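Hi V.,

Quick status before I head out on leave. The structure for the redesign project is tokenized and pasted below; the design run finished overnight.
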């Protein structure tokens, strides 16, 4: 592809520049896809690395996933995004007859609360 100089870009209209941007984005996407296709699970180098991780896992008596996680940490690469744990919160609701039955107010409502609400009681009655 011919290289565009700044002078050539200055002559383009806003529509032409936008078209060029869109074409560039499509081309970048194609190049990334091509890279991924080249590096797949059937690639000899990938197979060799996978075999090495399996051998490491067997030698250390851990799962291949644990071995791969250790390798990724050593390389300072994250395999999956880590989520910050939710801070511990206090109980917000308690069963009036059984103080052991509590709920923090997150997630699915416990069965005891659902049953009480179905009997006509309100959520406010269980607030601590």
């Amino acid at each position: 592809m011919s290289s565009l100089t700044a002078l050539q870009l200055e002559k383009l209209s806003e529509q032409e520049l936008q078209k060029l941007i869109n074409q560039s984005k499509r081309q970048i996407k194609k190049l990334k896809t091509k890279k991924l296709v080249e590096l797949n699970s059937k690639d000899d180098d990938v197979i060799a690395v996978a075999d090495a991780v399996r051998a490491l896992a067997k030698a250390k008596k851990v799962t291949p996933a644990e071995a791969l996680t250790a390798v990724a940490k050593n390389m300072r690469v994250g395999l999956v995004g880590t989520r910050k744990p939710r801070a511990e919160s206090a109980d917000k609701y308690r069963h009036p007859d059984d103080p052991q039955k509590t709920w923090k107010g997150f997630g699915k409502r416990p069965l005891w609360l659902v049953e009480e609400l179905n009997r006509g009681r309100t959520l406010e009655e269980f607030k601590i």
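Above is the designed sequence. The radius of gyration is 29 Å.

G. will cover questions while I'm gone.

Best,
W.
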